[in-house]
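Morning run. Coffee first, then this:
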Amino acid sequence: MLPKRLSPSLKTVLEAFRRGEFVALLDKPDREAEADLLLAAEHATGERINEMISLARGLLTVVVTRQRLRELRIPLLEPEFAMPNAPVFAMPVDYRHGTTTGASAFDRAVTIRALADPKARPEDFGRPGHVFPLAMAEGGLAERQGHTEGAAALAELAGTVPVVAMCEILDPEGHMARGRKLRQWLRDNSIASTTVSQLLRALGLE
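And here it is:
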């Protein structure tokens, strides 16, 4: 679906994301009311991933389309007793070339970039590993309005590969950052942000 006219604030976020800067994606207030820090996979370096997990401090995952997961033969994990709005995890992986244990920020950056590399093959990834892929819904935001689908939509609007490193933003006390604390965090770190609702409007879905 072709996007409608983009708002100036969304254009700013897309330009920053395209340049390899961090951007934040805020969930709907009536859903989880949380925010994730995003980075285009093609810009993932050890330094950037280390900075990302130091800043946001939540779980580092990587958004991947189901088609790409099928190409790489990375299976989805069967949910059991899942929480409401839980994302769909796939088998965690490590890229097998140019890495050691797979756990360092630098090894994880290599794996994240490889997931976006069309030349990478199934046998290039060890399973299980230290990078947690999240499978976006087949119908994208039209089917599920979560951070996973929002991150992939943002990447597509920005013209980058829809593989996105994503880390949940925690407040200084270790809770999910929301409301005033989240706004302060975004100001303190000069992070451009957008919302799932803004992406839905840009795509004519809301």
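The chain has one domain: 8-202. Good start to the day.
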